[in-house]
Protein backbone atom coordinates (compact mmCIF):
# COMPACT_ATOMS: atom_id res chain seq x y z
CA UNK A 1 0.00 0.00 0.00
CA UNK A 2 1.48 3.38 -0.99
CA UNK A 3 1.50 6.36 1.36
CA UNK A 4 -1.07 8.05 -0.90
CA UNK A 5 -3.39 5.08 -0.46
CA UNK A 6 -2.79 5.10 3.28
CA UNK A 7 -3.55 8.82 3.49
CA UNK A 8 -6.76 8.38 1.50
CA UNK A 9 -7.71 5.46 3.71
CA UNK A 10 -6.97 7.61 6.73
CA UNK A 11 -9.33 10.30 5.47
CA UNK A 12 -12.02 7.68 5.08
CA UNK A 13 -11.29 6.47 8.59
CA UNK A 14 -12.03 9.93 9.93
CA UNK A 15 -15.52 9.48 8.60
CA UNK A 16 -15.96 6.23 10.47
CA UNK A 17 -15.01 7.51 13.89
CA UNK A 18 -17.16 6.70 16.89
CA UNK A 19 -18.88 10.07 16.66
CA UNK A 20 -20.20 9.00 13.27
CA UNK A 21 -21.56 5.63 14.41
CA UNK A 22 -25.22 5.02 13.61
CA UNK A 23 -27.26 3.04 16.15
CA UNK A 24 -28.91 0.04 14.55
CA UNK A 25 -32.31 1.32 15.69
CA UNK A 26 -31.78 4.54 13.73
CA UNK A 27 -31.41 2.78 10.38
CA UNK A 28 -34.71 2.87 8.48
CA UNK A 29 -35.68 0.36 5.81
CA UNK A 30 -35.72 2.67 2.78
CA UNK A 31 -33.92 3.30 -0.53
CA UNK A 32 -30.60 5.08 0.07
CA UNK A 33 -28.09 4.25 -2.69
CA UNK A 34 -24.63 5.34 -1.50
CA UNK A 35 -26.03 7.31 1.43
CA UNK A 36 -25.15 6.36 4.98
CA UNK A 37 -27.62 4.15 6.87
CA UNK A 38 -29.12 7.07 8.77
CA UNK A 39 -30.47 8.68 5.57
CA UNK A 40 -33.13 7.82 2.97
CA UNK A 41 -33.41 8.70 -0.73
CA UNK A 42 -36.95 7.85 -1.81
CA UNK A 43 -37.00 10.32 -4.73
CA UNK A 44 -33.73 9.11 -6.27
CA UNK A 45 -31.99 12.51 -6.35
CA UNK A 46 -28.92 11.02 -4.56
CA UNK A 47 -29.25 13.31 -1.51
CA UNK A 48 -30.78 12.63 1.89
CA UNK A 49 -34.51 13.16 2.19
CA UNK A 50 -35.90 15.48 4.84
CA UNK A 51 -37.16 13.23 7.67
CA UNK A 52 -40.87 12.45 7.51
CA UNK A 53 -41.15 12.54 11.31
CA UNK A 54 -41.35 16.18 12.53
CA UNK A 55 -39.79 15.14 15.83
CA UNK A 56 -36.51 14.65 13.94
CA UNK A 57 -36.45 18.20 12.53
CA UNK A 58 -33.97 20.79 13.78
CA UNK A 59 -35.07 24.39 14.35
CA UNK A 60 -32.13 26.04 16.16
CA UNK A 61 -32.23 29.62 17.44
CA UNK A 62 -28.72 30.13 16.04
CA UNK A 63 -27.69 28.90 12.60
CA UNK A 64 -24.05 27.92 12.06
CA UNK A 65 -22.56 28.69 8.63
CA UNK A 66 -19.20 27.53 7.27
CA UNK A 67 -17.31 28.11 4.05
CA UNK A 68 -14.91 25.53 2.65
CA UNK A 69 -11.41 25.82 4.18
CA UNK A 70 -9.48 26.76 1.05
CA UNK A 71 -7.81 29.92 2.33
CA UNK A 72 -7.41 32.16 5.41
CA UNK A 73 -10.70 31.86 7.40
CA UNK A 74 -10.38 35.46 8.59
CA UNK A 75 -10.60 36.70 5.00
CA UNK A 76 -13.81 34.80 4.42
CA UNK A 77 -15.47 35.75 7.70
CA UNK A 78 -15.34 39.33 6.42
CA UNK A 79 -16.29 38.36 2.87
CA UNK A 80 -19.45 36.59 4.02
CA UNK A 81 -20.53 39.21 6.57
CA UNK A 82 -23.06 41.03 4.36
CA UNK A 83 -24.61 37.80 3.14
CA UNK A 84 -24.93 36.46 6.69
CA UNK A 85 -26.69 39.67 7.73
CA UNK A 86 -29.14 39.08 4.86
CA UNK A 87 -29.55 35.46 5.95
CA UNK A 88 -30.42 36.63 9.47
CA UNK A 89 -33.03 39.03 8.11
CA UNK A 90 -34.73 36.43 5.90
CA UNK A 91 -34.71 33.56 8.42
CA UNK A 92 -35.24 35.57 11.60
CA UNK A 93 -32.37 33.61 13.15
CA UNK A 94 -28.99 34.59 14.51
CA UNK A 95 -26.24 33.33 12.16
CA UNK A 96 -22.66 32.59 13.23
CA UNK A 97 -19.69 32.06 10.89
CA UNK A 98 -17.74 28.90 11.79
CA UNK A 99 -14.11 28.96 10.50
CA UNK A 100 -13.32 25.33 9.67
CA UNK A 101 -9.71 24.21 9.32
CA UNK A 102 -10.12 21.01 7.31
CA UNK A 103 -12.60 19.25 5.04
CA UNK A 104 -12.88 16.32 7.46
CA UNK A 105 -13.70 18.65 10.37
CA UNK A 106 -16.32 20.41 8.28
CA UNK A 107 -18.01 17.11 7.36
CA UNK A 108 -17.88 15.90 10.96
CA UNK A 109 -19.43 19.15 12.21
CA UNK A 110 -22.42 18.78 9.89
CA UNK A 111 -22.87 15.07 10.58
CA UNK A 112 -22.85 15.68 14.33
CA UNK A 113 -25.47 18.46 14.05
CA UNK A 114 -23.11 21.36 14.82
CA UNK A 115 -23.18 22.83 11.29
CA UNK A 116 -26.42 23.79 9.55
CA UNK A 117 -25.51 25.70 6.37
CA UNK A 118 -22.30 25.24 4.45
CA UNK A 119 -20.31 25.52 1.29
CA UNK A 120 -18.41 22.28 0.63
CA UNK A 121 -15.66 22.28 -1.96
CA UNK A 122 -15.90 20.27 -5.15
CA UNK A 123 -14.18 17.13 -3.91
CA UNK A 124 -15.81 17.12 -0.46
CA UNK A 125 -19.37 17.43 -1.78
CA UNK A 126 -19.91 13.69 -2.36
CA UNK A 127 -18.59 12.82 1.11
CA UNK A 128 -20.71 15.55 2.72
CA UNK A 129 -23.80 14.38 0.83
CA UNK A 130 -23.37 10.71 1.66
CA UNK A 131 -21.88 10.91 5.16
CA UNK A 132 -23.26 14.14 6.63
CA UNK A 133 -26.73 14.51 5.08
CA UNK A 134 -25.72 17.59 3.11
CA UNK A 135 -28.38 18.88 0.69
CA UNK A 136 -26.65 21.22 -1.82
CA UNK A 137 -28.88 23.45 -3.92
CA UNK A 138 -26.85 26.38 -5.23
CA UNK A 139 -23.51 27.34 -6.72
CA UNK A 140 -21.83 30.67 -7.50
CA UNK A 141 -21.86 31.80 -11.13
CA UNK A 142 -20.88 34.76 -13.29
CA UNK A 143 -23.32 37.27 -14.78
CA UNK A 144 -23.96 35.05 -17.81
CA UNK A 145 -24.65 31.99 -15.64
CA UNK A 146 -21.35 30.26 -16.37
CA UNK A 147 -19.54 28.65 -13.48
CA UNK A 148 -16.67 26.38 -12.61
CA UNK A 149 -12.90 26.25 -12.37
CA UNK A 150 -10.05 24.17 -13.69
CA UNK A 151 -7.39 22.08 -12.03
CA UNK A 152 -3.97 23.31 -13.02
CA UNK A 153 -0.54 21.87 -12.37
CA UNK A 154 1.84 24.72 -11.75
CA UNK A 155 5.58 25.13 -11.25
CA UNK A 156 7.90 28.11 -10.91
CA UNK A 157 10.04 29.76 -13.62
CA UNK A 158 13.39 28.08 -13.97
CA UNK A 159 12.32 24.87 -12.23
CA UNK A 160 13.32 22.77 -15.23
CA UNK A 161 9.73 21.51 -15.51
CA UNK A 162 8.19 22.45 -18.85
CA UNK A 163 5.64 19.65 -19.23
CA UNK A 164 3.88 17.17 -16.97
CA UNK A 165 6.35 14.37 -17.74
CA UNK A 166 9.17 16.52 -16.34
CA UNK A 167 7.73 16.05 -12.84
CA UNK A 168 9.21 12.53 -12.80
CA UNK A 169 11.69 12.30 -9.96
CA UNK A 170 10.53 15.65 -8.50
CA UNK A 171 8.24 16.76 -5.65
CA UNK A 172 4.53 17.31 -6.47
CA UNK A 173 2.29 18.96 -3.89
CA UNK A 174 -1.35 17.98 -3.38
CA UNK A 175 -3.71 19.74 -0.96
CA UNK A 176 -5.78 17.08 0.86
CA UNK A 177 -7.16 13.63 -0.03
CA UNK A 178 -10.76 14.92 -0.17
CA UNK A 179 -9.99 17.74 -2.62
CA UNK A 180 -11.02 17.25 -6.25
CA UNK A 181 -8.53 19.57 -7.92
CA UNK A 182 -5.98 19.25 -5.13
CA UNK A 183 -5.76 15.45 -5.26
CA UNK A 184 -8.45 13.28 -6.83
CA UNK A 185 -8.59 14.76 -10.34
CA UNK A 186 -4.81 15.12 -10.80
CA UNK A 187 -4.25 11.60 -9.45
CA UNK A 188 -6.69 10.15 -11.99
CA UNK A 189 -5.29 12.27 -14.84
CA UNK A 190 -1.64 11.54 -14.06
CA UNK A 191 -2.37 7.81 -13.99
CA UNK A 192 -4.64 7.63 -17.04
CA UNK A 193 -2.99 10.16 -19.37
CA UNK A 194 0.68 10.07 -18.34
CA UNK A 195 1.18 6.66 -16.68
CA UNK A 196 2.56 8.45 -13.63
CA UNK A 197 2.08 7.11 -10.12
CA UNK A 198 3.02 8.64 -6.76
CA UNK A 199 6.25 7.38 -5.20
CA UNK A 200 7.08 5.37 -8.30
CA UNK A 201 7.37 8.44 -10.56
CA UNK A 202 7.31 11.45 -8.23
CA UNK A 203 7.39 12.36 -4.55
CA UNK A 204 3.91 13.30 -3.27
CA UNK A 205 3.48 15.80 -0.43
CA UNK A 206 0.36 17.33 1.12
CA UNK A 207 0.16 21.04 1.87
CA UNK A 208 -3.30 21.09 3.50
CA UNK A 209 -4.83 23.89 1.41
CA UNK A 210 -4.68 25.37 -2.09
CA UNK A 211 -3.13 28.63 -0.94
CA UNK A 212 -0.38 26.68 0.83
CA UNK A 213 0.39 24.79 -2.39
CA UNK A 214 0.37 27.94 -4.49
CA UNK A 215 2.61 29.85 -2.07
CA UNK A 216 4.84 26.79 -1.81
CA UNK A 217 5.44 26.80 -5.55
CA UNK A 218 5.83 30.59 -5.73
CA UNK A 219 8.45 30.40 -2.98
CA UNK A 220 10.13 27.35 -4.60
CA UNK A 221 9.36 25.03 -1.67
CA UNK A 222 7.58 22.62 -4.04
CA UNK A 223 8.70 21.75 -7.56
CA UNK A 224 5.08 21.63 -8.73
CA UNK A 225 1.54 21.55 -7.34
CA UNK A 226 -1.97 20.59 -8.41
CA UNK A 227 -4.34 23.43 -7.53
CA UNK A 228 -7.73 25.03 -8.23
CA UNK A 229 -7.10 27.98 -10.53
CA UNK A 230 -10.00 29.95 -9.01
CA UNK A 231 -8.01 30.15 -5.76
CA UNK A 232 -4.85 31.15 -7.63
CA UNK A 233 -6.68 33.91 -9.51
CA UNK A 234 -8.03 35.39 -6.28
CA UNK A 235 -4.58 35.29 -4.68
CA UNK A 236 -3.08 37.11 -7.67
CA UNK A 237 -5.79 39.77 -7.57
CA UNK A 238 -5.20 40.28 -3.84
CA UNK A 239 -1.47 40.61 -4.44
CA UNK A 240 -0.56 37.53 -2.39
CA UNK A 241 1.52 36.30 -5.33
CA UNK A 242 2.41 37.81 -8.70
CA UNK A 243 1.66 36.11 -12.04
CA UNK A 244 5.36 35.82 -12.88
CA UNK A 245 6.01 33.60 -9.84
CA UNK A 246 4.16 30.59 -11.28
CA UNK A 247 3.93 28.77 -14.61
CA UNK A 248 1.04 26.52 -15.60
CA UNK A 249 1.95 23.27 -17.39
CA UNK A 250 -1.48 21.58 -17.38
CA UNK A 251 -5.12 22.72 -17.35
CA UNK A 252 -8.08 20.36 -16.95
CA UNK A 253 -11.67 20.46 -18.11
CA UNK A 254 -14.00 22.72 -16.10
CA UNK A 255 -15.34 21.40 -12.78
CA UNK A 256 -18.18 22.71 -10.59
CA UNK A 257 -17.13 25.03 -7.78
CA UNK A 258 -18.21 25.03 -4.14
CA UNK A 259 -21.73 23.74 -3.60
CA UNK A 260 -23.86 25.45 -0.94
CA UNK A 261 -26.69 23.87 0.98
CA UNK A 262 -28.11 22.73 4.30
CA UNK A 263 -28.12 19.74 6.58
CA UNK A 264 -30.98 17.35 5.73
CA UNK A 265 -32.94 17.54 8.99
CA UNK A 266 -33.49 21.27 9.34
CA UNK A 267 -37.17 22.11 9.57
CA UNK A 268 -38.55 22.19 5.96
CA UNK A 269 -39.84 25.76 6.28
CA UNK A 270 -36.43 26.87 7.52
CA UNK A 271 -34.71 25.14 4.59
CA UNK A 272 -36.96 27.09 2.22
CA UNK A 273 -36.14 30.37 3.99
CA UNK A 274 -32.41 29.65 3.66
CA UNK A 275 -32.85 28.99 -0.06
CA UNK A 276 -34.78 32.24 -0.34
CA UNK A 277 -31.90 34.09 1.32
CA UNK A 278 -29.38 32.76 -1.23
CA UNK A 279 -31.53 33.53 -4.26
CA UNK A 280 -32.68 37.00 -3.14
CA UNK A 281 -29.26 38.27 -2.07
CA UNK A 282 -28.23 41.40 -4.00
CA UNK A 283 -24.47 41.17 -4.53
CA UNK A 284 -23.97 44.77 -5.68
CA UNK A 285 -21.65 46.71 -3.38
CA UNK A 286 -21.34 43.90 -0.81
CA UNK A 287 -18.38 42.22 0.86
CA UNK A 288 -19.27 39.03 -1.04
CA UNK A 289 -19.00 40.83 -4.37
CA UNK A 290 -15.72 42.45 -3.32
CA UNK A 291 -14.12 39.06 -2.71
CA UNK A 292 -15.69 36.75 -5.29
CA UNK A 293 -15.72 39.17 -8.21
CA UNK A 294 -11.98 38.41 -8.21
CA UNK A 295 -12.87 35.04 -9.71
CA UNK A 296 -15.72 36.39 -11.83
CA UNK A 297 -18.64 35.29 -9.63
CA UNK A 298 -21.63 37.54 -9.09
CA UNK A 299 -24.73 35.48 -8.26
CA UNK A 300 -26.13 32.25 -6.84
CA UNK A 301 -27.83 29.94 -9.30
CA UNK A 302 -29.86 26.75 -8.65
CA UNK A 303 -28.11 23.43 -9.11
CA UNK A 304 -28.57 19.79 -8.19
CA UNK A 305 -26.01 17.30 -6.94
CA UNK A 306 -27.10 14.44 -9.20
CA UNK A 307 -26.26 16.26 -12.45
CA UNK A 308 -23.66 18.86 -11.47
CA UNK A 309 -21.43 16.41 -9.59
CA UNK A 310 -21.63 13.52 -12.07
CA UNK A 311 -18.09 14.19 -13.40
CA UNK A 312 -16.71 14.30 -9.85
CA UNK A 313 -18.32 10.97 -9.00
CA UNK A 314 -16.69 9.51 -12.14
CA UNK A 315 -13.28 10.78 -10.98
CA UNK A 316 -13.90 9.28 -7.54
CA UNK A 317 -14.83 5.96 -9.15
CA UNK A 318 -11.60 6.03 -11.19
CA UNK A 319 -9.65 6.55 -7.95
CA UNK A 320 -11.52 3.76 -6.16
CA UNK A 321 -13.10 6.19 -3.70
CA UNK A 322 -16.08 4.84 -1.76
CA UNK A 323 -18.58 7.01 0.08
CA UNK A 324 -19.04 4.62 2.99
CA UNK A 325 -18.80 6.18 6.42
CA UNK A 326 -18.20 3.04 8.47
From TrEMBL:
**Domain of life, source organism:** Bacteria
Quick one: a GO biological-process term for this protein? transmembrane transport
Q: Name one GO cellular component term.
A: ATP-binding cassette (ABC) transporter complex
Alphabetized InterPro entries for the sequence: PhnD
The region annotated as signal peptide is 1-26
What keywords are annotated for this sequence in UniProt? Signal
Family membership: Belongs to the phosphate/phosphite/phosphonate binding protein family.
Designated name of the protein? Phosphonate transport system substrate-binding protein
Q: Which organism is it from?
A: Oceanicella actignis
- Taxonomic classification: Bacteria, Pseudomonadati, Pseudomonadota, Alphaproteobacteria, Rhodobacterales
Amino acid sequence: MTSITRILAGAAALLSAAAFAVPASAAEDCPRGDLDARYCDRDGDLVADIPEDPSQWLDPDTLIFAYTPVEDPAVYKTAWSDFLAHLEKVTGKKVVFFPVQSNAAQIEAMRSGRLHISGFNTGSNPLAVNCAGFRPFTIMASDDGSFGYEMEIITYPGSGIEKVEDIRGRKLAFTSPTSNSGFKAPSAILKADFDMLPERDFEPVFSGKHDNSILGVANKDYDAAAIANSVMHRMIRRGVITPDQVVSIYKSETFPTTGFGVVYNLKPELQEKIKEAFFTFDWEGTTLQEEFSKSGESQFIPMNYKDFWAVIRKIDAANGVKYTCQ
